[in-house]
Structure formats: structure tokens, C-alpha cells
Amino acid sequence: MQSRWFPLVLLAAALGGWMTAELAGDWMWLDHLTELVRTAFFAALKMIVAPLIFFSLFAGVMELRNSSSMGRLGAVTLAYYLVTTGIAVCIGLIVVLWFHPWTSLPPLVDDPSVLGGLTLADARLIDPGDGSTLTLVSNLLLRMLSNPFLSLSQMNVLGILVAAILFGLAAALTVSEDSPLPKLMRDLAQITYRVAAWVLRALPLGLFAIAYQMADQISLDTATALLQLGAVVLGATAFHGLVVLPLLGWLASGIPPWRLLSKIAAPLITALSTSSSAATLPLSMQTAEEKLGVDRARCAFVLPLGATANMDGTALFEGIAAIFLAYMFSVDLNTTSIIAIFLVAMLSSVGAPGIPSGSMAGMQMVMLAVGIPLEAIGLLLLIERPLDTFRTAVNVEGDLIATLVAKRFS
Ligand code: ASP
């Protein structure tokens, strides 16, 4: 399945380049058609961002109600998820600080404000204003404390995040045990996941149109930069998946890293081949019980929560990808932007559904946070499918090791 994508992208790019050079007049319809598909695909991706973030976070925060009633198990699991996701984003950001081979190549776009009619000031989550700390903080607060309906309609991700967390928390503390609200919010989150999955089904078509339209921009330099991004992401993901997580598992269970990895090989391979944490969940449950010896009650709490809310590989990828896109689209990043990338990558990995390319909606949230034009995601889509396999395996590995931590500490 994965291998079909790359030839498709190459074919579209070759066709696009050839058409522009040779046959533009007669084949204008193909140009218009791919432009239409590309625009519709981006519009559909943008359409799901706001409801996806809102409902998945609202539902996620309400779930905390269960974890607090589960006492120590809930606290240990949440702490583990928070810390390991934080470590993953840090690894990504530190690695990309040292290894960013693409900066020796020219950026793809010199002036990002020309893309898709977006201007940086519109897209930037935190407008630096006149640069003073006071203006920065006051702009930040205004963004955070905006009317939730306005935030949703204007795609102010910071406002959506704050509203979802605040209202979710208030709901968790207010509604009674038998209230239908938690189920309703879970259902609404599932519905937005389903719509996201439908949109992502059109990915091959979208990719074809994006690559065709980008044909003049997909130079050898751009292809090299994308491959370099792939190598940096893989290196950092491998470090987290082969060193950090197995070490944590070793500390928690005493099982040496290589034995631990061989015990959980089956779900890891399934995650690798399906690119879906959700699809791997049944096998993860079985493996945790039978191979890691964790009791069913713990597995039933830790793993389903992890399959939706704990995505180390995804968070790590999003951090590196944001830095890459900022360079390719000439967006300046300062310390505040790096902190914003860190926080939003963590949060958006919580909201990402465990399906192939599920994080692409959340990735847009990270991009919005630092003013990268949403259209830039087209470039990322060209390479993200093969990388999804490895990050999903690391997402699942993180959940399985969480069961060992929960067994030891709760
Ligand atoms: N495919 C990933 C998962 O299922 C989500 C993503 O990073 O796109 O865990």
C-alpha cells in the first residue's frame, strides 16, 4: 500500500513538468482539474481542523473523570504519557537543532505571504506586534480568552484549545455520573475522526494534484530536502523507540531492552504495516496481557487511552516537520515560536486520531501556531506517508511500555 504513493507523486510531478513545458495549451483542462482537486483537498483538510481539535480535546478532558476515579492508576498513566510525549518533542527539537541539512539548500518560497492569499499576520497564532513583551503577552491572552464560537469560526487554535480544556474540565467536575454528556462528546469526537478518515481517503488524489501543481517547485533541491527531512525524522524516531522507551521499560519491569522489543514485536510490526494505532489496539491488548503479564483491568484503561492520547512518534515528527516547513517557507522562528511548537505539538498529538495520517489535521494546528501558511502542508504530504509507519510503531510502543509502568507503580 505504502509503495504505491511514491510512483504516483513522481508521475504527477513528471506529468506536471512536461505539460507546462510542452502541451500547456491543449492540456489546460488537466491544469484546471488538478487545481480544483488541490483546492478542494486543502479546503476539506481545513474544514476538519477546528471541530477535530475541539471535540477530541473536550472528550479527552472529560475522560480524566474516569482516571481520577481510578486514582493512582490514572495519575501514573497520565504522568507517564505527559512526560514521554514531552521527551519525544524535546528529542525532535534538539535533533533538528543540530541536524538540519536542508538549510544548505535554498528555501522553496521566499515570501510565504503570497501563498493561498494568507498573510502571516492572519495565520500567526501569536502576533509579535511591536516586539515588546507586554504586547506579546497581551496578544497571547486575547487569543486565548476569545469567544469560543469566534475561535472555532476563525480557526484560532489557541482559543479553541483553551475553550475545550476549560469547558471540558468544568463539565467533568459538574455533570452527574449518569449524564449522557461524556458519551455524547466521545461520539462527536468519533464522528470528526470518521470525517477526517474520509478526507484522508482522498489523499492519493490530493497528492497527485499537489505534486502536479508543484511540478516546477519540486526541483532536485526540494526532493533532496524532503529526503533529508525523512532521514532526520527516522533517526530521531529510532532513538526514541530503540533507546529511550526500552530503557524506561527496563527501569519499570527489569526486562532488558532487546527482550522487551522481541516480546512486543507483533504489535509493532502491525502498527508499522497499518499506520494505525487504533487498528493495532486489539493486538496490543493481547500482547500486554500475554507477553508482558499485565492484568486486564490495567490494560483496559491504559491502552485505549494511549491509542488516542499518547503519540510520542507523532509529537516528535510534528516538532521536526514544523521547523523544516518554517525554513522551506521562509518563516522566521524565535524562542517564543519554538516554545509554541513544543506545546502545540504535544497537545495536537493528544488530539490526533490513531489512523493513517491522522496527525495531519493536528499538524496544521502546529503550523498555525507559528505562522506557517497552511498550504505548506502540501510539501509535507509528499513524504509523510512512509514516515507514518515508523511513528505509529513508536506510538504503540509507548502505550505498551505504559502498561509496564502502570503495573509497577500503581
Ligand atoms: N498514524 C498515527 C497513529 O495511528 C497517527 C499519525 O501520526 O498520523 O498513531
Residue runs with pLDDT of under 50 for 5 or more positions: 116-126
If you average the pLDDT, what whole number results?
A: 82
Compute the CA-based radius of gyration. Answer: 21 Å
Characterize the largest beta sheet: strand count, sense, and whether it forms a barrel.
none
Which CATH first-tier class would you pick? Mainly Alpha
Structural class, by secondary structure, is mainly alpha
Shape: globular
Domains counted in the coordinates: how many? 1
Bound ligands: aspartic acid
**Topology pattern, helix = H, strand = E:** HHHHHHHHHHHHHHHHHH
Count helical runs: 18
Strand content: under 5%
- The helix fraction, in percent, is over 70%
- Oligomerization status of the protein chains: single chain
- Quickly give the CATH architecture: Orthogonal Bundle
Distance between the termini: 41 Å
| CATH fold-type name | Proton glutamate symport protein
Task: Please tally the β strands and state the result.
Answer: 0
What does this molecule look like?
With 410 residues, the protein is mainly α. It has a single domain (2-409), classed as Proton glutamate symport protein (Orthogonal Bundle). The protein is 78% helix and 0% strand. It has helices at residues 5-23, 28-69, 72-98, 120-123, 133-144, 148-154, 157-174, 181-201, 203-213, 220-253, 257-263, 265-274, 277-290, 296-309, 312-328, 335-351, 360-370, 377-409. The radius of gyration is 21 Å and the shape is globular. The protein starts with a helix and ends with a helix. It binds aspartic acid. The site of aspartic acid has 16 residues, from α18.
